[in-house]
Amino acid sequence: QNKEFVCRGHDYERLEAFQQRMLNEFPHAIAMQHANQPDETIFQAEAQYLQIYAVTPIPENQEVLQRDGIPDNIKSFYKVNHIWRFRYDRPFHKGTKDKENEFKSLWVERTTLILVQSLPGISRWFEVEKREVVEMSPLENAIEVLENKNLQLRTLISQCQTRQMQNINPLTMCLNGVIDAAVNGGVARYQEAFFVKEYILNHPEDGEKITRLRELMLEQAQILEFGLAVHEKVVPQDMRPLHKKLVDQFFVMKSSL
């Protein structure tokens, strides 16, 4: 009936399993394999279509999530409860795609879905009342990626320090992912895309955003340095070689900033 709903799946249910469950419930439906907005022919068609994709909750209580000293289990509750708004992102390239550095042209179309009632409720699904679509520029996208990664690193380091983490693998993997990406061009690609004279002259309105990106990159280096110091205290003997590799790679990355 051309309606949209946000559904809460079963605990640990994969998207494919949820999709199969819905198709069993609507055996005559045709599953659409993309998250793009359907065109008018689909809306007017006689056939029944199902379009299913994952969305991310947007917590209402940002203050609780950002305040220090609040236990992680309380924060994780507010991340997925009393949620009115959900979103999904569609990356796309605008203009000519730079094969050497795709960050230069990587835009994000962000769709926010606003529900008639907050999830979870008595029902496991509620109708979408309103949708809002905005485009995020490559620079705004880079800022958000770094903000999220810095927050994730801080959380893992804090859990490791307070012994909330039984297994240090999540911290090891996160440190490895960030440092490895940076050494292989992650942060350097941002510098090449947004800190060059050509970009600064062509985008005078982006001055504050460029400053913000620079601050986040320097902040990430400080977080990584602290994270490696914490990691060194808890890393088991068999993972010492990996830790040493991370420290060596980190200093290469830091010197390139």
UniProtKB/TrEMBL annotation:
UniProt xrefs under PROSITE patterns: DOCKER
A GO biological process held by the record: cell chemotaxis
Domain DOCKER: 1-257
InterPro entries: DOCK, DOCK_C_lobe_C, DOCKER_dom, DOCKER_Lobe_B, DOCKER_Lobe_C
GO molecular function: guanyl-nucleotide exchange factor activity; small GTPase binding
Record's GO cellular component terms: cytoplasm; plasma membrane
Family designation: Belongs to the DOCK family.
Protein name, entry field: DOCK4 protein
Organism: Upupa epops (Eurasian hoopoe)
Biological classification of the source: Eukaryota, Metazoa, Chordata, Craniata, Vertebrata
